[in-house]
Amino acid sequence: MLLVLVCAAGLGLSSPARASDDISVGAVKMQRAPESAGWVVSADFRVELAAHQQDAINRGVTLPFTLEFELLRPRWYWWDARAVEAQRVLRLSYHALTREYRLTGDDWMRSYETLGQALAALGRVRDWRVMDIGQMQPGILYEARVRLRLDSSLLPKPFQISALTSRDWSLQSAWKPVPFNP
């Protein structure tokens, strides 16, 4: 265990925190799925990793990213109610034997030659089914939003400890409102 902590410290976990978001949100679109009675989201994120995060991937650490969607029902008398929540976990890793970066989801895996290609694919979300029509009530105005973040709770344990005390592993986009008219 001591060896793992020493290796984690060597990957730059003690470098100063950065002030800007390293995941920015571009275009976001929500539309009805043509083949079913549901809604899908498409979005573009630009993901930039710090040097210590790139080093961690190149040394075999898998970085888990969580794509989140929320459909909120605004209330004037209390906080907004969450009508729908959806999450999707994407894992980015490097395999030294094949010298390729891999991006995996629930039931798929894609390989890329460079980290830049893998990060571009990570940020390109297309036709992600987030809800069914029956999950909404007619006549109510909803607000939809989406974000992408590095999920520090899914990192290996030594990195989770460092993520609690440092912003070095805090990587996320702001919540982006999605144009939505049911």
List the main descriptive attributes of the protein structure presented here.
six-stranded antiparallel beta sheet; three-stranded antiparallel beta sheet; disordered N terminus; alpha+beta; globular; 182 residues; 19% helix
Short characterization:
Helices cover 19% and strands 41% of the residues.
Describe this structure in words.
The chain has one domain (19-176). Residues 1-21 have low confidence and may be disordered. The chain has four helices and nine strands. By secondary structure, the protein is α+β, with helices and mostly antiparallel strands.
Query: Strands of the largest sheet, in order across it?
Result: 6-5-4-3-8-9
Oligomer: single chain
Category from helices, strands and their pairing: alpha+beta
Strand content: 35-45%
Helix content: 10-25%
State the order of secondary-structure elements, H for helix, E for strand. HEEHEEEEHEEHE
Shape: globular
Query: Based on DSSP secondary structure assignment, what is the total number of beta strands?
Result: 9
Name the poorly predicted regions: 1-21
Q: In the residues, how many domains can be counted? A: 1
Distance between the termini: 52 Å
> How many separate helices?
4
What is the rounded Rg? 18 Å
* Biggest beta-sheet profile: 6 strands, antiparallel
Rounded mean pLDDT score: 82
Question: Which helices and strands, and how do they pair?
Answer:
Blueprint: H1 2-10, E1 23-32, E2 38-47, H2 51-58, E3 63-73, E4 81-95, E5 100-104, E6 109-112, H3 115-122, E7 124-132, E8 143-150, H4 157-165, E9 176-178
Antiparallel strand pairs: 1-2, 2-7, 3-4, 3-8, 4-5, 5-6, 8-9
